[in-house]
Specification:
The protein is α+β, with helices and mostly antiparallel strands. 52% of the residues lie in helices and 13% in strands. The longest helix is centred in the first third of the chain and has 62 residues.
């Protein structure tokens, strides 16, 4: 530390430090010169310490950025694994759950699996129903936990059924339906203990409501049941007695005026047709006749390039088989980062098809397909993936060899 001095003395020395020649200090006393040297030395020490702190801060920031990148990469990998797990589940529920558990994205615990199914993000609701209806101890535990995630408190039976049947699609097997509806009835009666005398009554009436919904709203059923027929059908189901007429009438009217909504399978990840593609993403595609650019969602899978208008479309707008095709970079003044597919092997036209404005499938008549990527890196990645997926028809190779042989002989 600096030696103690009064403020006027320090100010005087500081002024001299700034104004005087560092090698020639005639106006300073020996004591002041000594203090000045100490100040300069301390200043150098402080500057060195500041630089060291800066260097250390830079190292810490760099380490934090590296950790962030690693964390982002970890999250990215986890997201990709979760997406694959969902797709596997939609194709084979059991294998999908096993994959997610193996990658520590899910615990092989009935409660955890039930929450995953109940949340249902990206899951096919038919697959959910099939999994919940399976007859084994673990699946039955999952079913029970899944049903317990529903809150039917103070709901009339039709409202509870609407909520329940929206969370999955009923499977086709009678035994699966039986297990699921029995579990539903137990949960409903647990939360609403004063409505039915036992769970069997709730179970039978729930089936009757589902059958009524089919009879009233299925176009193939010509003779629609009346309210009196519905009441008659449910006589004696309440422990040998009848349910209140007004209850049955209200249930009938609810179904008559508003049928059950059947959940549609979630197709926004194209899980059935395009499982785990080689590459997917947005590209700009140049049209054939008018040369206009349109943004399309492309999926590369099984040696075919598919393109869609939207990611939620279940059917592609076009299909380009990667057969007797090559890919090359191209410069286009109207769009950056361009590449194109072009016919080779003696073919003038690329074998492809697309749907027209009326939804009809027509053959493509392109000799090239030109695309534009968002970045140079994305373009190179597409070219790399397409090149590795392109297959050549072996018959063309045989034909070329035969021609060469024929020319040599002649």
């Amino acid at each position: 530390m600096l030696s103690v001095m009064d403020r006027s003395s320090y100010a005087s020395i500081s002024s001299l430090v700034q104004q005087s020649d560092p090698n020639h200090l005639p106006e300073m006393s020996p004591e002041q010169q000594k203090q000045l040297i100490e100040i300069r030395n301390r200043k150098q020490e402080l500057l060195l310490e500041i630089q060291q702190i800066k260097d250390e801060l830079c190292e810490v920031v760099a380490e934090m950025e590296t950790l962030d990148l690693q964390e982002d990469c970890k999250h990215s990998n986890k997201d990709k694994q979760m997406s694959i797990g969902r797709k596997k589940f939609n194709m084979d529920p059991k294998k999908g759950i096993e994959y997610l558990c193996e990658n520590n994205l899910l615990q092989m615990d009935a409660q955890d699996v039930a929450h995953f199914l109940y949340k249902g993000e990206g899951l096919n609701k038919t697959a959910i129903g099939d999994y919940l209806g399976e007859k084994n101890d673990f699946n039955e535990q999952v079913l029970k936990a899944f049903v317990e995630l529903h809150d039917f408190t103070n709901l009339i039976l039709v409202q509870a059924l609407r909520q329940f049947l929206w969370s999955f699609r009923l499977p086709g097997e009678a035994q699966k339906i039986d297990r699921m509806m029995e579990c539903f009835a137990q949960r409903y009666c647990q939360l609403n203990p004063d409505i039915f005398t036992n769970t069997d009554t709730c179970y039978v009436l729930s089936f009757a409501i589902i059958m009524l919904n089919t009879s009233l709203h299925n176009p193939s059923v010509k003779d629609k049941p009346s309210v009196e027929q519905f009441i008659s059908m449910n006589r004696g189901i309440n422990n040998g007695g009848d349910l209140p007429r007004e209850l049955l009438v209200s249930l009938y009217e609810s179904i008559r005026t508003e049928p059950f909504k059947i959940p549609q399978d979630d197709g926004n990840d194209l899980m059935h047709t395009f499982f785990n593609p080689d590459k997917e993403g947005w590209l700009w595609k140049q049209g054939g006749r008018y040369k206009s650019w349109k943004r399309r969602w492309f999926i590369l899978n099984d040696n075919c390039l598919y393109y869609f208008e939207y990611t939620t479309d279940k059917e592609p707008r076009g299909i380009i088989p990667l057969e007797n095709i090559l890919v090359r970079e191209i410069h286009d003044r109207s769009k950056p980062h361009c590449f194109e597919l072009y016919a080779c092997g003696g073919a003038d036209i690329i074998k492809a098809c697309k749907t027209d404005s009326e939804g009809k499938v027509v053959e493509g008549k392109h000799s090239v397909y030109r695309m534009s990527a968002a970045t140079e890196e994305d373009k190179q990645e597409w070219i790399k993936c397409l090149t590795s997926s392109i297959s050549h028809n072996p018959f063309y190779d045989i034909l070329v060899q035969r021609k060469k042989k024929a020319l040599t002989v002649s």
